[in-house]
Write a structure and sequence with these properties.
Layout lengths: L1 H27 L1 H43 L6 H19 L5 H14 L3 H11 L2 H13 L3 H7 L4 H5 L9 H4 L1
Helix pairs in contact: 1-2, 2-6, 3-4, 4-5, 4-6
GO biological process, one term: protein targeting
Protein name: Mitochondrial import receptor subunit TOM20
InterPro entries: MAS20 (IPR002056), Tom20_dom_sf (IPR023392)
Length: 178
């Protein structure tokens, strides 16, 4: 019993001595502080780069899923079919939103429901309040990747979607900038 207590005391003393030494070096040595700062900056850059790569890969996955699903299951254009389609997609999206691995599929359902809804700004407000945040963010990314026709109509020709839809981009003249 005495040996274990002695060993624990020595290990604890060594740990405290290392902590005191580290604190002394941190406070007094400019080279040590510079080294710590460089490591911190490098770690922050790596974390930012990793976050950017994750975001880009997520956007690519969303883009691929959206285009593949829209090609396989196009949105109906008939008015009578739109109402039924809207209700089916919202119900399916709500069910899938509760499943952890089905966030993109749930967002696809909500995106399709948005595409057939006559006033997309209203439904986006409802989504923001009722849909889980991760799913709502994916829906917004899908709108940014490929805006539905209802959203494009609201934005009009001067909006961002009008410039990307084959129409010439309207640029301000020198006189407008002055």
């Amino acid at each position: 019993m005495s040996k274990a207590l002695t060993f624990t005391a020595v290990a604890g003393s060594a740990l405290v001595a290392y902590a005191v030494y580290f604190d002394y070096k941190r406070r007094s040595s400019p080279d040590f502080r510079k080294t710590l700062k460089k490591k911190s900056v490098k770690q922050q850059k790596l974390a930012a780069k990793e976050h950017e790569n994750t975001k880009k890969s997520k956007l690519d996955a969303i883009k691929k899923a959206l285009t593949a699903d829209l090609e396989a299951n196009p949105v109906p254009t008939d008015l009578s079919e739109k109402e039924n389609f809207f209700m089916q997609q919202v119900a399916l999206g709500e069910q899938l939103a509760t499943v952890p691995d089905k966030k993109i599929e749930a967002a696809l359902c909500f995106y399709k429901a948005l595409a057939v809804y006559p006033n997309p700004t209203d439904i986006l407000g409802i989504y923001q309040r009722s849909v889980p945040e991760e799913v709502y963010e994916i829906v917004v990314m899908m709108i940014a990747v490929q805006p539905p026709a209802a959203v494009t109509n609201i934005l009009g020709a001067g909006g961002a979607a009008g410039a990307g839809a084959g129409e010439p981009e309207i640029k301000p003249s020198e006189e407008d900038l002055d």
